[in-house]
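Practice problem. Given the sequence and the SMILES for zinc ion, write out the predicted structure.
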Amino acid sequence: MLDRNDPREKINWALSIPFILLHLAPLGMIFFPPSWGDVVACVALYYGRMFFITGVYHRYFGHRGYRMNRFWTFLAAFAGGTSAQKGALWWASHHRWHHRFSDTDRDPHNSNRGFFWSHVGWIICNKYNQTHYETIKDFAKYPELVWLNKYHLVPPTLLGVVVWLIGGWSALFCSFFLSTILLYHGTFSINSLTHKWGKARYKTGETSKNSFILSLVTLGEGWHNNHHYYSSTANQGFFWWEVDISYYVIRLLGLVGIAKDIRVPSDRARFKNWIDEGARDKLARRYGVSAPEEHTHDLDVAVSVPSRSAPSSRPPEFTPAE
Ligand SMILES: [Zn+2]
Ligand SMILES: [Zn+2]
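Answer key:
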């Protein structure tokens, strides 16, 4: 819960009232019942925008798991902005704090403070309302991204107007508002539930877990323990059965030349620091990888696809947990 003794944790009503009203907006469907087309558009806008949160806000702006030129960066930030989760710079700067200070008081959505705080409490209070540009200097040097971060209501408003013009009121309430609310809670579940549900593979020193169900809901973000172990890669599913649709889309963007230097963990990195070393050795044998020595500081850099054998010249932003 919010700490009433900390003035920075007072509920910010200027933010919270629109946030609450947004949650009530889908009730408009009572008066304007949705068509099947509206429902299909709702699902499409949920998953379509989920990609821009996971594949762009998170893996690109948060972790630089791949590269894009300035033009595609702006377009992708704009598309992510239609999710009404503030600007890419606000989103990614707080997320970088989460990785640096996971499960401590300096982690914005410290999961040790309970479900409410990590899911939504940290968003509705004053404490984390501002963007800390010093944490995201690498992107804050582009004025168009700073503009988008400041006027973050422009993209979702435009999308809402377009949906209303195309589909009318029923589409506005179902396809736009309902999908936006579902998208909020799908995204927030990564901050709250993936630090509670599932199983950890790697020793990361915090509470992150891997969850197949949450990966389906969030296009691959459920492999959160993998991600905390090695956060600077474009993929979060580290083995073929770990379904990671955001990564598949990034690879498609790579095929058409939009995404470059797509980073994945080396085999050595994938097979290091397992909690269950017996399971690790069994799988490593199947993959023909000799079980790596633990506690070594040898080559663990991420490698770029498709030339998996050549280490990237760009060092990882965050190194794997030791
Ligand atoms: Zn986390
Ligand atoms: Zn992350």
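Check your answer against the key. The beta strands are 262-264, 303-305.
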